Structure formats: structure tokens, C-alpha cells
Amino acid sequence: MHTHDSERDHAAFKHLVRCKFLTTELIADILRESALMARVLNFRNDPGIVDYRQRVRQTFWDNGITVASLFYEESLRTRWSHERAAHALGASVISTENAAKFSSAAKGESLEHAIQVISGLHCPSEGYADIVVMRHPTEGAAKRAMKFCGVPLINAGDGIGEHPTQAILDLFAIERKLGRIQDFTIALIGDLLNSRTIHSLVYLLAKYPGVKIYLVSDPRFSIKHDLREYLVRNHVWFAEKNRPEDFREVMAIADVVYMTRVQKNRFDMNDEAEAARYREIRGVYIVGRELADAMKAGSFLLHPMPIETDNTEGFPPEIMTEVDDHPHAYYFQQAGGGIPTRMAIIKMLLENWGRIERIAPPERAAA
Ligand code: NCD
Q1: Is the pTM of this model over 0.90?
Q2: E strands of 82-217, at which residues?
Q3: Beta partners for 241?
Q4: Is-contact 96 71, C-beta < 8 A?
Q5: Cα(19)–Cα(162) distance, integer angstroms
Q6: CA spacing 20 to 30 A to 295: which of 48, 142, 236, 327?
């Protein structure tokens, strides 16, 4: 039986489970391929990409590539952008949006057993899928699944653990808008403890020279200890800002402001102490038009989305709707980048397994 060693598999880019072990060379390749995939999506206006698009779609189709999207936890963007990416590549998709309820997990089946069957670990030509995109409520679930997965596994979020494809699309957005992914200042704001997008993004940001990271949160919701140690060990410039008044100050000096949602779904709202903790921080970090106006010229606002607009406690959204059409708002465009980045990731993983042949980019790919 072929099982996997996590660090080696990350270096060889056989799975995408955590960001820590990705090299900057590999990330550069993913971003380059993503830019190409953005052109593929825009093929009607880009004659230079038509032949490449045709070759990609032909390869996926001829090999009968099937992408499984296996979601044990709620999602809109992550699931659909992977599925849209698969379709745009010429792959088929099999999907369950509520695996916790509608898969045999509800009958007590283990994740390990399900993954072995789906990925055809014991009978490779009779697996259900050539690549698995999985979201799960438990931290570490993706790493567990990877060990029993006979095809590439993409972690689409494991509890409060990581969300690597989100961090890659975040970098893609920064590169597109800022023109570089080094030598800039970023403010990460909100629930830094429970936000898996933050964890993955910090691991990526730490790899680039000249990135200054402001971590703005209530002290009870600051980044996890191991992540802080990682930043220290790697000599990354970072500053933790825990007073509410720091918020405005940092917003005005950052090139990139990355807001997060207070991860209400990770709180037990039936527990009075936890619910009180939620209420204490929920209203502190809110960006309205006035704060958006105070942002530095050329800077922009990111958010992994969803923004919590409907809130039974009566709190405003963490980015108020009035900011949506502000010149500094870039979160809708950021989300759009989810499709080309996921196309790139799916294609590269399948190439690395030899499941499809490498498809040469068009000449002058960056044209
Ligand atoms: C994020 C997630 O699921 O972690 N959503 C997403 O995938 N874009 C962020 C969040 O839910 O706050």
C-alpha cells in the first residue's frame, strides 16, 4: 500500500495540505501558472491563449480526469471555485456538499476508509476520482486523509488548521494589485486565533523578504503560539497590536489590509462565557467608509469572505456594505482569483503524479 510522508510530499508538491513546506520557487510556479489560467478563462479576448487552452482541455478530457469535491463543512466560494476550475480545465466533477450528513460518515465510517475507496488506493483504475478536494471541521483531518489518499489531496480547510488554496489566491491578489509579493506592509485584522486563512497566509508571507506583518486583534484572539514561534525563528518582522485604538493607526500605514470574520461557527454560542467572549470582540474591528478613506494611497482591502452581513446580535458587518464600491476595496476581485489559482493547482498536482503529461506553456506566456 502506498502511503505518504508529509514533508517529502509537500516538497514534491504531491498534495496541498499545509503552506509551511512550500518553497518560494514552487509558489512562483503556481502564481505563473495561475496567471496563464486567468488568460485561459479570458480566451475570447486573448487569441494567443486559445491553442494552450485547447491542449489543456484535450489532455484532461482524454485522460478522463475526475475531481472529487468532498465537503464535510459549509462552503460556497471554495467548493464552487474548485468545481468551476475543474470544468474549465475539461475535467468531470463528483461532489458532495454536506458529507457530514449525506456520506457514510453519518453511519460511522472513518475518514480513512472513505478516502481509500474514493482515491482507489487499493485498485487505482477503479477509484472514483483522480484528485480529491476536501474540507473538514477537524484540524489535522487533511493530513490524516493524505496518508490514505492514492491521488493528490487538496486541503480546502481543516477546522481552525489551514486553508492553503485561500492563501495562494490571497498572494495572487496581492501580486496582481500591488505588482509584487515582497517588500510591503500587511495588516492582518480580527480573529487571528481561529482563522485558518490567516494561519496559511502567515506561513506564506514569512517566506518573502521585506514583508512586515502587523497582527491586529484582541489579545485573547491573537495568533497561535506555534505560529508566533515560527515567525521569530524565521526572523520575520511582525508586531502584535492589541489595543482597539491601534486599529486605525495600522490601517493608515499598511499597503494591504486583510480583514477576517470573527469565526462565530467555532464558538459554542450556547455556552454563556463563550458567547460573551464573542460579543466582546465582534464589534471592535469594523471597517466603514470613513476608515476606508483613511487608508494609504494605493493600498487595498482584502477579506477571504464571507463577510458576516446578517448578524442576529445586531453587529454591523466587519466590512460595511458601504465600502463594497470604495476604491480601496479589492475583495471581490480577490475572490475571482480563486478560479485560476485552483485550476493551476489541480493541473500541477496531476502533472506531478504523472496522471497527465506536462503541458508546455505558450511561448511568451507572460505576454
Ligand atoms: C474562509 C474559511 O472557510 O476559512 N472562507 C473561505 O474559504 N473563503 C473564511 C471564513 O469562513 O471566514
Answers
A1: yes
A2: 92-96, 131-136, 153-158, 184-189, 211-216
A3: 216
A4: yes
A5: 8
A6: 236
Residue with cell 477546522: 159
Q: Which three cell numbers stand for residue 245?
A: 485604538
**Catalytic residue IDs:** 77-78, 107, 135, 163
C-alpha cell at 331: 475583495
User: Tell me: the pLDDT tens digits for 151-205?
Assistant: 999 999 999 999 999 999 999 999 999 999 999 999 999 999 999 999 999 999 9
252 burial (CB, 10 Å; 0-12 / 13-18 / 19+) is middle
pLDDT at 367: 44
Dist. CA 122 → ligand 1 center (Å): 33
Helix (H) or strand (E) holding 40: helix 24-41
- From CA 135, how far away is CA 142, in angstroms rounded? 8
- pLDDT at position 317, please? 96
The greatest distance separating any two alpha carbons of the chain, rounded to the nearest whole angstrom, comes to: 61
CA distance 158 to 31: 23
Please state, as a whole number, how many other Cβ atoms lie within 10 Å of the Cβ of residue 277.
16
Q: For ligand 1, atom 12, name the residue with the nearest CA.
A: 261
Kindly give the parts of the chain with pLDDT less than 50.
365-367
Within 6 A (CB) of ligand 1 lie 77-78, 157, 163, 166, 196-197, 261, 304-306
Residues 6+ apart with CB under 8 A from 54: none
Q: Please, which residues have CB within 8 angstroms of residue 292's CB and are 6 or more apart in sequence? A: 301, 323, 326, 328, 329
- Which protein residue's CA is at the shortest distance from atom 1 of ligand 1? 304
Residue 90 CB neighbours (<10 A): 18
Q: Which residues contact 41 (CB under 8 A, 6 or more apart)?
A: 88, 339, 340, 343
The closest of 279, 32, 276, 14 to 155, measured between CA atoms, is 14
Instruction: Look at residue 232 in the predicted model and tell me its pLDDT.
Output: 97
Distance in Å from the first CA to the final CA of the chain: 45
Set of cell numbers at residue 281: 470582540
Torsion angles phi and psi, residue 252, rounded to 5? -80, -15
